[in-house]
User: What shape does this take?
Amino acid sequence: MIVCSRKQEVMELISDSIKLNKTIGLVPTMGSLHEGHLSLISEALANNDIIWVTIFVNPTQFNNSDDLKNYPKNFKEDLNLIKKISNNINVFHPNEMEIYDGKPLLKVYDFNNLDLELEGKYRASHFNGVATVVSKLLNLFKPTNAYFGEKDYQQTQIINRLIDIEKIEVNLIICPTKRDKNGLALSSRNKLLSKKNKKKSSIIYESLIYLKKYFQNKPVPLIINEVKTKINSFQDFQIEYLEIVNNKSLQLESNYDKNKVYRAFICVRVKGVRLIDNILLN
Ligand code: PAF
Assistant: This one.
């Protein structure tokens, strides 16, 4: 396992890999790894010659300084988890200065409004921050394949558009959401939940399943309302958004057309901890 913190070191290693015609798999993360990340890493390991995992808590994608401060960090444990999968995985763990060549600065992109929907309504400039760092990573590692989780579906669509805008040659691989035994989507933020609230949070996935079941049989405003009322009745739980939108544009539509594809997105604040999830409906 190679662990680097300098871009120069990475550039030399990547240039050697490219000369040898090796395929490169990249798994960008913000650390505090869980089974969801590990499944992306295993997928990368199975399909590439060289695997890089990046661990960097990117400040430009946080619009709330407390959120950034409280974001769980556990580098030593992350390395142990990666080693358990294989010793043949390289890790890049830079500091802010190294990634941003100085003060972290945000690049502003035109995402065709994808960044203004859902998460974008509550986290101003979040996706510009994500795209800024992902662009830096894709340009540094020049991966054949880059791996992201479906839990952050809106993020995957933003990255898809970024790849288009910057004409980056990479295959974007979207891997299924990993869940705990109660259905809660795995997230580094789950570590911030009390045991009781974590258990109760299974209501989020149960609600998505409910929406999928009734999407074509009951009026959409009715099922959305049912779910909102139920979740908001839980102590410490508050829905930030729950929307059924076009799977591609992520826009709300006035009518649901059977020939189009829709996805439900949810964000619930559980005692201040933001939990997001989504499900493909048809
Ligand atoms: O999904 C994440 O963990 C982050 O948004 C990413 C893609 C690593 C960029 O910082």
